[in-house]
């Protein structure tokens, strides 16, 4: 019997968390599948595809990546509740954004409680699109509200998001889709349309943007408009900006320390 609901509360809750996390990452996964369809890129890949010169990744068959940005370290053996995790030499962030910490070190680490909450790390330099997990039916699909997470590496980060009508047939072949590129550098986040079809804009909203490593932020601008809908967590150095605008109408978001300077952690 493989139904999580009949395997006890512990399995049920762990399965629920895993499924909800997967749905939260749907925009990122959807974009990866677009790249796979158009360019032949891999969606799921071994570590050595990204870290080819790191010999420790060559025979690592127990961790894997989604695209370039997400490192997954599952528990694979019955009865175990910890996992030996290897972090290649770059910056990594825990996917638990509320308590996220930067891991710039490299090497092997033991993560306890991994069976209940699969270790998932985000690579520095990435911008991850997500959406809130919601129960919905085919006929009640609401507008997409996306939350973006910016993890700078050497003061830069980038990412993409792919949108289509969800229920359309062959959207790529029929060119009924949109792709937006996000590029961050020095307290400026630019959003560019790399493919925009001639029909109505898809209902994709930039709901919230979280930027990590922000040391100071007194002014925030969406385009040329100064906004007050932001907050800076001094404990985690995460700047949260409530945007709530259609993706097609947001081109640039900037911030400064009140003296037109960019103050970010290294």
UniProtKB/TrEMBL annotation:
One of its GO terms (molecular function) is hydrolase activity, hydrolyzing O-glycosyl compounds. Pfam families: Glyco_hydro_31_3rd. InterPro entries: Glyco_hydro_31_C, Glyco_hydro_b. Residues 40-128 form the Glycosyl hydrolase family 31 C-terminal domain. Coiled coil: none annotated. This is Sucrase-isomaltase, intestinal. It comes from Nephila pilipes.
